[in-house]
Amino acid sequence: MPVRLAINDDDSVGPYNRLSASQVNAYTNCSRMWFYEKVRRFKMPQIPVLFVGRAVEEAFCRMLQESPALLAPSASSDTLSNIPLDDNGVPSRDSDMPWPADRLLALPTEMWPVDLEGLRSWAQQRLQAHLPLALKAMKEEWEKDERKAGDWSSVDPARCMEMCLKGLEMHLAEVQRCFDANGGPGLEQWRKGVRPHWPAPDGRRYEMSLRHPLAQDGPLVWVEAWEISRPWFVDPHAGKFAMNAIHPDHWFQGEYDMVYRWDGRINIVDLKASVGAGDRSGNYVEQLRMYAMLWWVTHERKEQVDALQIWYLGADVIKEIQVPTVPEMEAMETKLESLWKEIKSEQPTIDDCPPEPLPMRGFSPGGVPTKAPEESRCSRCDWKAVCPGGDGPESLPDGGSIRLPGSTASYDLTPINALQPRMTLIADVFSVMGGGDGRRPKIKIEQDGHFASLQLLVDRHQDGEPAWPADLAKGDRVRLEGVVPSANYKGELQLKVDPHAIVIYAGEDEHVETTLLDFRARWNVTGRLVYRFEKKGVGRNGKSWHRKGMMLMDAHGSMKVEGWAADWGAQYDLAEVGDTIVAANLSLDAWAIDVKGQINRNSKVQITERVERTD
């Protein structure tokens, strides 16, 4: 099985606290870099190449999902859309909705490709249908990203298509092998409509009650070879990270790119839209070795992977990775579980993660090991300007108080980890309006003559429980656990319910000291500027909007501070990475573990210390 979902009753780790191969590699390369990105939540610049790889993979997988016996070469790119999904974004086993491929009649057999060249021609035309749309979608996603960097004009669609075609040739080699093997050991089962628990995505439901609609009699035909050799991959319509393989103890997870298994062997393939040169190629090797371990433990330690491959589409090279032995996988599992306990079971401090990176590794195109570059890992790090291992100072701002220029008042500065964006209180339901048919109700609560509205932003709490009782009614006494208070533009109090907040019934004797009057509207913070970001767009009313923000870090934590562009003032444009900033009269917001400060017209932003410049 290429997928093993979490078992909620046994999962004490939760979806946000598992280890992944990328985190392991990041921590191994430099624990401080990992700390900045996973604990402090810094987001590296989003350059186009990061999105190009996703576009190439999506176009390639959409082509693999389709069948030359169902779709003409010129068919619409969305023919296999509308895959039924469950609440978690996994293609649903229980939905009564029709699956798109099940609704299609097979093309006349005289239209089916009769040789490998026919398959190649059909698949090339399907890639031409999918890649432009995938690139367009990725460009739109990149343009919306607050940390976008670089220029999309650097993206070469012809080069992207070339990589897709290289991947196609690698897959056609599997199709050829399948044809030469007369479908392999599973031919008769496939023809009978017997499917694995997790079949390769083909737009059909998980189980068939009859013979496969495309099955033939006698010798294997090329379309059957295409169908049978199709690898498992993440359905392009599934939710992000919805189809992970999760360790039985839930502390590690991974999502395979492709798994070939038609010949009875298990071959895990990592698809890379790159040439495979540079330090990252070492990470890919370790990632696949971890995936071999993950496959083994999720198959009751009875089934091992037979092959591991990296397909470097940019170099037209398939790199074979040595499969780890059982003793190696046992040692790897023990080591990774120990790492999880070290960095996930309890959150490490910044001092637990020193800026002591490993040396850079050298690889030539195709992931071939070569002489390592002489430069240090710090020289390429996105955080070198604020990290003491790079150009940053050893100390960080640590609260205190300050008098800002032009102000007679003294501002008390709260350390970031002491900010309190949430509150828990008990109140009575004043009114419940609307709701039902998938819509969230409008709920107003009352406490000692004071009122607040609930903003229900999710349907479920992070532990899987409903975010509010479905039968909530006027007069009910409720406990509002971890809600995020804010005041709207009218000055009305609102209480946000996000994945870390929940509304539950409260007993008559239950008591909490907190009241609605304890809501603190304004906070003051100081921190070192890690980066600035901007977001622009057009609202539903057709009007343009523009927001600016900063990521600040002090000795105890980090946070985003953002607001409308007009509310920031001139200091925003003068600030540079490494400067110490005071942001006063902020309101607070939160989503899950992230705390965010909101700038408004009454806020004040001031550079209080400039970092030394070399220019």
Summarize the SSE layout with pairings.
Elements: H1 21-29, H2 31-39, H3 48-65, H4 116-144, H5 157-180, H6 187-192, H7 222-229, E1 232-233, E2 245-246, E3 253-254, E4 258-260, E5 267-272, H8 280-297, E6 307-312, E7 317-321, H9 326-343, E8 362-364, E9 368-370, E10 400-403, E11 410-413, E12 423-433, E13 442-447, E14 450-456, E15 477-487, E16 493-497, E17 502-505, E18 523-538, E19 544-553, E20 558-564, H10 571-574, E21 580-591, E22 594-598, E23 604-609
Parallel strand pairs: 5-6, 14-16, 20-22
Antiparallel strand pairs: 1-4, 2-3, 4-5, 6-7, 8-9, 10-11, 12-13, 12-15, 13-14, 15-16, 15-17, 18-19, 18-21, 19-20, 21-22, 21-23
Helix pairs in contact: 1-2, 3-4, 3-5, 4-5, 5-7, 8-9
